[in-house]
Design a protein that fits this description.
It is a single chain. The protein has 214 residues and is of the alpha/beta class. It contains 7 helices and 6 strands, in the order βααβαβαααβαββ.
């Protein structure tokens, strides 16, 4: 048995988000706007009656999860596999600064080609390969009535969800990034997990359609 709904939730805004800096695993806190975003989003997600709550251990995700924990009484379960991509010595740069120092690497990233971040960081593929199993662990041993929430990071969530769903890497760029404190809602169906909503900031509504997804 697995959970009945999986919510993958990006953290609230940080000062580095506002400055368009590459964060990676630098442990940057939420700014005042990010705290307000997390509080508002948590109030909406609490109405889904979540039964388990997982989070990256980086403080911007942990603080976001903490707002939901405060409303629901759930214990936050931390998993390092839910961290953002490791960008090593690129942390704190803007993409323009990166392009000025490492133009070939920046060009490969923009074109979607494989590129390790920094001297000893990760590739996008490596992030997906650690993140997707973390989602599988989060939903195992659940019940159809369960809603599991995972507080995490933008790039890691995007590529990890794609791999979790079995989407070929060539199609990953078709899935846009997540806004601060928005989420992806996934549901189990006849043929595995499927996307209910992507980059959502409001609660899922029933689908009235002749297309019976389940």
């Amino acid at each position: 048995m697995t959970a009945g709904r999986l919510i993958v939730w990006r953290h609230g805004r940080t000062e580095w988000n506002l400055q368009d800096k590459i964060q990676g695993q630098a442990d940057i806190p939420l700014d005042e706007v990010g705290v307000a975003q997390a509080r508002a989003a948590a109030a909406r997600l609490a109405s889904l009656a979540p039964t388990r709550l997982f989070s990256s251990d980086l403080q911007r995700a942990a603080a976001t999860a903490g707002e939901l924990a405060a409303l629901t009484g759930l214990k936050v379960e931390y998993d390092e596999a839910l961290r953002e991509i490791n960008v090593d010595d690129w942390a704190g740069m803007t993409m323009d600064e990166l392009a000025a120092i490492h133009p070939e690497a920046a060009a490969r990233i923009r074109s979607g080609e494989p590129q390790r971040r920094g001297t000893a960081g990760e590739t996008v593929e490596e992030v997906a390969e650690r993140f997707a199993p973390a989602l599988a662990r989060a939903i195992e041993h659940g019940e159809p009535s369960d809603t599991v929430v995972v507080a995490t990071h933008g790039l890691a969530a995007r590529v990890g969800i794609c791999l979790f769903l079995g989407i070929p890497k060539a199609h990953w760029p078709a899935f846009g990034g997540l806004s601060n404190c928005n989420w992806v809602s996934l549901l189990p169906g006849r043929h595995g997990w499927r996307i209910e909503e992507w980059n959502a900031g409001s609660l899922p509504e029933p689908v009235m359609s002749d297309d019976q997804q389940r």
